[in-house]
């Protein structure tokens, strides 16, 4: 068993719990994660492999998700193994745009408090050269500049000091007691605990607001769906299209304060018969929703491939006796007929 462990597992994967999983040491203390999402299965596995501390980069959903996973999260909190929750800035990773956090687990905590840290505004921008990841040779050899958010060494040290010292610093960190977490129904979102001071200005800058708005629209527009109108109605997708169409045009409002916002173009209704097309509109990386779709698609293709091999084996076994007996003639002339 390792003393400590650092992990960045795949996010939001479907999985199949093994038979009698609750009897396995990694699951019998906190419970088994549902088949719909393996996040807490990865967490439980990591905890079972470390004797002291575990630090994991995880999607923010683990902090708030309800249902079976909320029960597991509650068990871990009550078992006092969660030491810190660190909310990370957006755009930190080159291959995904999903919001992330770091959760630090400690099997030998000396306090019942959990340190919450918010780093969403404590980053510096770094421009990196990156080669294309998808497409043909001409695309994969293309080099482009990409801006990512990074955490400086100084901020990292501030985080370490906050966790070790159980500090309370407005707009940065808070050491919350177990009773506070219970009152918040075991939700671990840092903004529920950290104190935010009042400032003279009543809102963030318009530039920041427009940037966040455009970030959301870009995430929506990364994948474009083109679908036949009748098919869209039968699949329950037409309401989504109408929702997009009925969205108010806010571009003029943003122009008043000197900002530009992007338009939602993630869905088109087609008159072509039974048309259904999914298009990746992001040139830098594969969007998260397409990655999830491809995972399901690959699993289905593997199933069909196994069925294909099974049928081919059946065909081979049926054909072989007739070939051996001469009942089926495979001479060139016979085959050509």
Secondary-structure topology with pairs:
Elements: E1 2-7, H1 39-49, E2 50-59, H2 68-78, E3 82-87, E4 100-106, E5 114-118, E6 124-131, H3 137-140, E7 143-150, H4 153-165, E8 173-176, H5 178-183, H6 206-221, E9 223-228, H7 229-234, H8 238-245, H9 251-256, E10 267-270, E11 276-280, H10 288-325, H11 332-336
Parallel strand pairs: 1-2, 3-5, 9-10
Antiparallel strand pairs: 2-4, 3-4, 5-8, 6-7, 9-11
Describe the structure.
This protein is an alpha/beta fold and 337 residues long. It has 3 domains: 2-192, 3-Layer(aba) Sandwich (Rossmann fold), CATH 3.40.50; 206-280, no CATH class; 288-336. The protein contains 11 helices and 11 strands. It has helices spanning 39-49, 68-78, 137-140, 153-165, 178-183, 206-221, 229-234, 238-245, 251-256, 288-325, 332-336; strands at 2-7, 50-59, 82-87, 100-106, 114-118, 124-131, 143-150, 173-176, 223-228, 267-270, 276-280. The strands form 3 sheets. It has a 6-stranded mixed beta sheet. Strands 10-9-11 form a 3-stranded mixed beta sheet. The longest helix is centred in the last third of the chain and has 38 residues, at 288-325. The protein is globular, with a radius of gyration of 26 Å. The model has no long low-confidence stretch (mean pLDDT 83).
């Amino acid at each position: 068993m390792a003393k400590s462990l650092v992990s960045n597992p795949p996010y939001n994967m479907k999985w199949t719990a093994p038979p009698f999983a609750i009897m396995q040491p990694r699951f019998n203390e906190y419970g088994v994660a549902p088949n719909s999402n393996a996040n807490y299965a990865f967490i439980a596995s990591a905890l079972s492999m470390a004797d002291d501390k575990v630090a994991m980069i995880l999607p923010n959903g683990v902090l708030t998700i309800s249902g079976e996973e909320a029960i597991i999260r509650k068990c871990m909190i009550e078992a006092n193994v969660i030491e810190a929750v660190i909310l990370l800035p957006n755009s930190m990773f080159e291959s995904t745009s999903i919001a992330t956090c770091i959760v630090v687990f400690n099997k030998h905590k000396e306090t019942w408090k959990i340190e919450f840290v918010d780093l969403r505004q404590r980053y510096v921008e770094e421009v990196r050269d990156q080669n294309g990841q998808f497409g043909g040779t001409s695309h994969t050899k293309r080099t482009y500049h990409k801006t990512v958010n990074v955490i400086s060494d100084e901020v990292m040290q501030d985080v370490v000091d906050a966790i070790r010292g159980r500090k309370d610093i407005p707009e940065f960190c808070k050491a919350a007691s177990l009773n506070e977490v219970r009152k918040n129904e075991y939700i671990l979102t840092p903004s529920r605990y950290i104190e935010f001071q009042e400032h003279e200005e009543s809102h963030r800058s318009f530039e920041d607001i427009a940037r966040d708005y455009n970030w959301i629209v870009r995430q929506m527009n990364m994948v474009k769906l083109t679908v036949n109108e009748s098919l869209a109605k039968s699949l329950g997708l037409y309401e989504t299209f109408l929702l997009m169409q009925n969205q108010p045009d806010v571009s003029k409002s943003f122009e008043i304060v000197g900002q530009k916002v992007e338009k939602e173009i993630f869905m088109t209704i087609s008159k072509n018969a039974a048309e259904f097309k999914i298009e990746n509109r992001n040139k830098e990386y594969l969007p998260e929703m397409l990655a999830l779709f491809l995972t399901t698609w690959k699993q289905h293709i593997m199933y069909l491939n196994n069925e294909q091999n099974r049928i081919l084996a059946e065909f081979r076994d049926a054909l072989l006796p007739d070939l051996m007996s001469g009942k089926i003639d495979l001479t060139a002339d016979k085959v050509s007929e």
